[in-house]
Amino acid sequence: MHREEQRESVLDPRFPRQTLVSILVFAVVWEVMSHLAPSLGIPAFAIPSFVRIGQSLLTITPIDVAVTLARVIGALAVSFVLGLVLAMAMYRSQSLENYLHPLIRILMAVPVVSWILFAVLWFRGVEFRIGFVLVAVCGPVFLIDSLDAMRGVPRELRGMMRSFRPTTLQYFVKLMLPAIVPNIITSWKINLSLAIRVVTIAELVGAVTGIGHQLAVAQELFSVADVFAWTLVLVALLFLLEAMVIHIENRLLRWRA
After folding, report:
1. What does the DSSP 8-state code read for residue 110?
2. At 257, is the pLDDT very low, low, confident or very high (cuts 50, 70, 90)?
3. CB atoms within 10 A of CB 110
4. Which of helix, strand or coil describes residue 204?
5. Cα distance between residue 136 and residue 138, in whole Å
6. Which of 32, 50, 56, 240 is 20 to 30 A from 145, alpha carbon to alpha carbon?
7. The dihedral formed by the CA atoms of 177, 182, 186 and 192, expressed in degrees to the nearest 10
């Protein structure tokens, strides 16, 4: 198998054999440890068996999963639009980029915990707090990746496009956006995993619904099985969203096959 074929097999959204084997090995080791925990001086609840985790999975409330999923998708959509629009404005105006680029870099260095504290102090609505944190974390990623991709479009293509005297809208719709689709897809993949992690932390502060809230309840009850179950749900959500993005990528980039 050539190197390119190996890389394509790694990017295949289906589960390869190696992934399945790794999961099975982990499950077996976990199950064995759950039975050996008392003899090792570890509390039995600290390493629950998969039977207990399965019972917790049966108690998963779909409304909390739907709320978290809606928050992630909504915030990512807003982040993408804002990031792309601002990237286009910065591309068109060198002065705007000179002023905003350092500020964006500073914002990207702010920890998630700080954004959560700012949101709590600045806003009263819980949904607005969560949305603000997600947009503040994910928006700069879309912006920087889109801007860098626009700068990377070959000069010959840009010159040829300008020779037709296009409007600003035509310039971006006909040239820039199609050219940076691969970079946009990559940004979505990065931000999906980032948003899934951030939303659970944001939901810990004031939210009464969502997976983050349920994780906080499980932590208060010292229920490791419930924490494990909700974590599995988060992982499943991430895999589902990534599979959707990969499907869209395969449709949009068929020409690269």
Report:
1. S
2. low
3. 13
4. coil
5. 6
6. 240
7. 60
In this predicted model, which residue has the larger pLDDT, 206 or 56?
56
Angle 29-33-35 from CA coordinates, rounded to 5°: 125
Check residue 14 and give its pLDDT: 54
Amino acid symbol at 231: T
SS3 169: helix
Asked if residue 74 lies in contact with residue 202, where contact means CB atoms within 8 angstroms, the answer is: no
Three-state SS at 24: helix
Tens digit of each residue's pLDDT (9 = 90 or more) over 95-121: 999 999 999 999 999 999 999 999 989
The CATH number of 61-256, from 1.20.1440.120, 1.25.40.340, 1.10.3720.10, 1.10.10.10, is: 1.10.3720.10
Q: Where are the domains of the chain?
A: 61-256
Q: Which residues contact 52 (CB under 8 A, 6 or more apart)?
A: 225
66-105 per-residue burial string, b: 16 or more CB within 10 A, e: under 16: ebbbebbeebbeebbebbbebbbebbeeeeebeebeeebe
Strand segments (E) across 21-118: none
> How far is 212 from 218, CA to CA, in rounded Å?
10
In this predicted structure, the answer to whether residue 19 has a pLDDT above a threshold of 60 is yes
Q: Find the length of the chain.
A: 257
For residue 84, pLDDT over 90 is answered with yes
Residue 32: partners with Cβ closer than 8 Å, 6 or more residues away: none
pLDDT digits 0-9 by tens, 122-176: 988 889 999 999 999 999 999 999 999 999 888 888 888 888 888 888 889 889 9
